[in-house]
Structures are given as structure tokens and as C-alpha cells.
Specification:
The chain has 585 residues and is α/β, with parallel strands linked by helices. It contains 15 helices and 34 strands.
Length: 585
């Protein structure tokens, strides 16, 4: 990292991303205090980082409104209820916020209600009320950008001079799949790179001397194709971008493990643009220092440094604690509502490699919620199946991010742990062939296992745990001697006539034929193409509910669903002689 020579002015850019409504440093699932995350601790780190620099701006890169029971409590509430996340961010003095994909989880109307409560500029360039023939004809849902003013002392003359800082935000186009139930027919979207390139130019024409890009997208060396979900590398190549805050994938940058063409963790740059990615849930603060000088009456960057700072060791800011305490207490009351009992422990430590109880609970709750809706349709006589995945499987969320419910009382916090997303539920018409393809995509999360080759890794780490669906109501086996048919993005790797990993698929003991018809209960996220799954056409949606999967799980537990639930496994692996698969949990 470089340091500023005395003849240069100094601007510090402080960035957060993917806070996911973690306000207090508290684990609601385990009902205990936690160290190492939360906006209240982050506020103390922000204050210290501001004190070190003469001039700074504080920006957030999105995904602030979803992710904790507090978010589940306040997300669906009426516009009359002030949202505690924005209250905390106002008190911390945020200068601008970019939209993340999870901001849309509660629907457009609720999002606009929430954002109307704050004076902080909330921006997004590529989610559109109207998509024109070209970017200049687009009508964005929010303002695409904002220009902030700061005064810097000219190191040559000592005079205070205005600096105009343009801030621009973009979000992945996949938001239209992930929240299609809320967005389809109401908004459109444009590719992040195409949109950002236009608006960077517009900011420059409007007098911005420095441009900061809030890119709610990951860092992937392959992300240079149109429509890429993780396109930070391509965005960094847009002329006129001086600094970039990335996110979405919950990783850290600078980080030596993040590599690829144009990515330099030593200098904290992507194609020479200083860049940070500050983890998630408020574990880190991104710090970009820009050192500036004036040439021909304008400021320009002459050197820079990038860093991510941990909140561990910082106390919670007492003023932010005071502001969010009513919401925290309301959340504690909410998560500690009793729902029943479980006679045995429920955990997800093996959720990726077996038909697991937490996954089955969610699927059975979905089925129970959908069935009354389905009985009012022409599809009531078709077999009803249900698809779900393990949602808590460690990984980037850390070693505590598993379901671990002891035998005994069940509470609302346990339902939140089992189903942490505010997804609406739906049901789709499908066929045996389509079900086989969906299971093939799920089974692609496993490496090919070769006979008589000793220990081999089982899971492909590119696939998150929540990409591994189980379809309940069927029975089937997975043959890992065959290579995976899809990659983690759902791109087919093998010819369609290649042998399938999915074998012995049956319904009620009868082999499923390609043309057999079923109804499948699942989340709207999955129905519209979330993860490595093809979206169902609009004409295949048999039921679209406003019911949240979390509430369905809570009702299932409250109404004794555990006592009615079968525990006979619906799938298993085909034995492979002489092979040993290694699974880390």
C-alpha cells in the first residue's frame, strides 16, 4: 500500500456491503450475544477510520434489508413503522446507499415504502421502470447516481477547493429471476456493464471529478460476459471509474485467495482500480484512500491504497445501540415465541450429503401450505411434490451457520434458522423429464467418484449448499460414477443423451416416466430460475401465493408437523466399490 506524500490531498472512502440487517452484535438463532459482526460494532470502526483522515465519505453497497429475524419482523410491516436499519444508517452518517438484490425480497411496494423513510440517497442505475432502446432512454426505478461535495485543501496553495464525487450503483440482472414473483411485469433490467459505462460518462459530463462505483457483484475472472452475475472485473475496465466497492458474494478483497487476470490483491486493485469487498453482516469495513492533486483546476487521483478492516475488538457504539434497542427487543420477543417441542435434536451438519431433517421440514411445510390452494384449481388430482434445499451449511457464513436445535422446546427463532429467507411459495406444473433434469442439476454439486481410487472429495465447493435440492414425494438414487451434467451456473457440461446420475426415480413405488405430470411446491426464488435451475415458464405456474416460507415452517412446527412427518429417506447414493468420498463439515 502507498502512503500520501504531503503535497497531495487525501480522500478516504469507507464502504460496507451485505450487512443483511445485522444491527446488534447478536445471534438470534442461538439467542446469545456474538462477537465480530453487526452495524453497532461497525459504527465504532467507522468513527475511528473517519478520525484518521481529514475528509471521508461513507457508502453502502446494498443488501441491508434482509437476513435476520429482525429483517423478517420489519420487512413486511406497514409504511407507518420506521425501519430500524435505515434509522441506524442515518445516525452513522451514510452518504449514499446502493440497492442490492435482496432489497427486492419484500416486493416493490414495500421497498418504496421503506426507502421513502430516509433522506439518504438510495441509488440504482440498471433496475428500470422503463427500458429504452438504449441506456439514454431508460427510466430507472431509483436515481442512478448522486454527486457528493467535499472541500479539500489544495496542498500547493492551502486554499479550500470543492471536490465533486460521483457515486453510481448497479445490481446483477439475475434479480429478475430471484425475485421474479415481485418484479416480472413491473420493472426491467439492463446489463450492469452497459448501464454503468453510460452513467459513468454522464457523471463526468455533470462535473464529477472522482467516480466511485457501488457494484453489488462478485469478483470473478470469468465474469466478463454480458449478463454475468459477478462482473466486477469487467466493471473495473470502464474508463472513468476511480474506485469500486464490490459485494454480493460475501467474500473479502483485498485477499490473496482472490486471483485472476487483472486482479492484484497486493495493491488492492482490479485493472488498477482500487477495490474493496468488505465481507458480510458487518464483519469488515472497506477503506479506500485516494491521494489527489489539482491539475488545470481539477482534482485527479495520483495514488491510492485499499484495505478491509475487521470489527473484532471494537465495542458496540452506545448511540447506535440506543437507536436500535427497541427493534432489538421487539425481535427478541418475536424469536422467543414458543412453537412446540421436538423429541430429538435437529441439525444440518450432514445436510448436503443425505435426505436431512431440516430440509424435509421445509419441504413438508411448503406442501401443507400449497395443498389448500391447489384444491381450488383444476390440478387438484395431480400428485403434489415439494422441493427444498439445506439452507444452513457453513461455508462463507462460518462454522456456526448450521441448524443445531436441541431436543426440547421449539421457538420462532428455530423456524427462522430452518428457513432464513422471505421467499413466497408457489406451485408449478411439471413432468417426469423436467423433474429428472432438476435433480440432475442438484446432483451436479458432487464430484465424479471413481471406483477403487481411494479417498476423493465429494462436494464441488463452487456449489453452495442451498443449490442442492431434494424433491420429496419421489424416491431416487444418485450415481456418482457418472460425471456432473451441469456447472454451478446451470450451464450444461454433458450431452443430453449422456448417462444420467439420477436412477431408479419412482413415485409411490412406480417408475416415473418422462411424460408423467406432477405439481411441485417450491419457493418463488427457485421457480423463477434461482441457482443452477432453469426457470419454469409463466404458463406452468399453477399457484402463486403471498405466503412466506418462513411462516409456513412456523405453522408446521406449531401444528405438530414433526409428529406426522415420515423420516424414511427418499434418496441415497449408489454404492461404488472401493471408493471413499471425503466430506468436510
Amino acid at each position: 500500500m502507498t502512503r500520501s506524500p504531503k503535497r497531495h490531498a487525501w480522500l478516504r472512502i469507507l464502504g460496507t456491503s451485505d450487512v443483511h440487517a445485522h444491527l446488534r452484535s447478536f445471534d438470534y438463532g442461538r439467542n446469545q450475544s456474538a462477537d465480530g459482526w453487526g452495524l453497532t460494532r461497525l459504527a465504532s470502526l467507522v468513527a475511528k477510520s473517519r478520525e484518521e483522515a481529514p475528509t471521508s465519505v461513507l457508502l453502502d453497497n446494498g443488501d441491508i434489508l434482509q437476513g435476520t429475524p429482525l429483517a423478517q419482523l420489519y420487512g413486511p410491516l406497514s409504511a407507518a413503522c420506521a425501519h430500524p436499519v435505515l434509522g441506524a444508517m442515518e445516525a452513522m452518517g451514510y452518504d449514499a446507499i446502493g440497492l442490492g438484490n435482496h432489497e427486492f425480497n419484500y416486493g416493490l411496494d414495500r421497498l418504496e415504502d421503506i426507502l421513502a423513510q430516509t433522506d439518504i440517497p438510495v441509488i440504482c442505475a440498471n433496475v428500470l421502470r422503463h427500458k429504452g432502446e438504449c441506456v439514454s432512454e431508460d427510466i430507472p426505478l431509483r436515481k442512478p447516481s448522486v454527486i457528493l461535495q467535499r472541500m479539500l485543501n489544495d496542498p500547493e496553495t492551502g486554499e479550500a477547493r470543492e471536490l465533486r464525487i460521483g457515486v453510481l450503483s448497479v445490481v446483477p440482472v439475475q434479480v429478475m429471476k430471484w425475485d421474479g414473483a415481485h418484479l416480472n411485469g413491473r420493472v426491467s433490467i439492463r446489463d450492469m456493464v452497459e448501464s454503468a459505462a453510460h452513467h459513468v460518462t454522464q457523471l463526468r459530463l455533470s462535473g464529477a471529478e472522482i467516480v466511485v462505483l457501488l457494484a453489488h457483484t462478485g469478483i470473478d475472472a470469468k465474469g466478463d460476459v454480458e449478463g454475468a452475475e459477478n462482473a466486477a472485473v469487467a466493471l473495473a475496465q470502464i474508463p472513468g471509474v476511480d474506485a469500486m466497492i464490490t459485494g454480493h458474494t460475501h467474500r473479502l478483497f483485498p485477499d490473496p485467495q482472490v486471483t485472476g487476470a487483472g486482479i492484484n490483491a497486493d495493491t488492492g486493485t482490479i485493472h488498477k482500480v482500487p477495490t474493496v469487498m468488505p465481507g458480510f453482516r458487518g464483519t469488515h469495513l472497506g477503506v479506500i484512500d485516494l491521494y489527489l492533486q489539482r491539475d488545470d483546476g481539477a482534482w485527479r487521483v495520483v495514488s491510492h491504497s485499499s484495505d478491509v478492516r475487521r470489527v473484532t475488538g471494537f465495542a458496540e457504539d452506545p448511540e447506535i445501540v440506543r437507536i436500535v434497542e427497541p427493534a432489538h427487543q421487539a425481535t427478541l420477543t418475536y424469536v422467543n415465541k414458543p412453537l412446540g417441542r421436538t423429541p430429538r435434536p435437529i441439525h444440518s451438519y450432514l445436510g448436503q450429503v443425505r435426505d436431512d431433517v431440516p430440509t424435509r421440514i421445509v419441504a413438508m411445510a411448503q406442501r401443507d401450505e400449497i395443498r389448500p390452494w391447489l384444491e381450488r384449481t383444476q390440478y387438484a388430482d395431480l400428485p403434489l411434490l415439494s422441493a427444498s434445499a439445506p439452507y444452513q451449511t457453513g461455508g462463507r457464513a462460518g462454522p456456526l451457520a448450521y441448524v443445531d436445535i436441541p431436543a426440547g422446546p421449539l421457538y420462532m427463532r428455530d423456524a427462522n434458522t430452518l428457513y432464513p429467507f422471505p421467499n413466497a411459495l408457489c406451485a408449478v406444473l411439471t413432468t417426469g423429464a423436467e423433474l429428472s433434469d432438476r435433480l440432475e442439476r442438484s446432483a451436479s454439486a458432487y464430484h465424479q467418484i471413481l471406483p477403487a481410487c481411494g479417498e476423493q472429495p465429494l462436494l464441488d465447493p463452487a456449489f453452495p449448499g442451498h443449490a442442492i435440492d431434494t424433491i420429496y414425494g419421489l424416491t431416487y438414487r444418485i450415481d456418482l460414477r457418472q460425471p456432473p451434467a451441469y456447472d454451478e451456473n446451470g450451464v450444461r457440461l454433458m450431452p443430453k443423451d449422456a448417462p444420467s446420475r439420477i436412477v431408479d426415480m419412482a413415485f409411490a413405488g412406480v417408475p416415473v416416466e418422462a411424460e408423467d405430470r406432477f405439481v411441485l411446491a417450491l419457493s418463488g426464488y427457485r421457480a423463477y430460475g434461482g441457482g443452477p435451475y432453469a426457470p419454469f415458464p409463466a404458463g406452468c405456474i399453477a399457484v402463486q401465493t403471498a405466503s412466506c416460507g418462513l411462516q409456513s415452517v412456523a405453522e408446521f412446527l406449531r401444528n405438530g408437523g414433526l409428529d406426522r412427518m415420515s423420516r424414511d429417506p427418499c434418496w441415497s447414493f449408489v454404492p461404488i466399490p472401493g471408493a471413499k468420498a471425503v466430506f468436510e463439515t
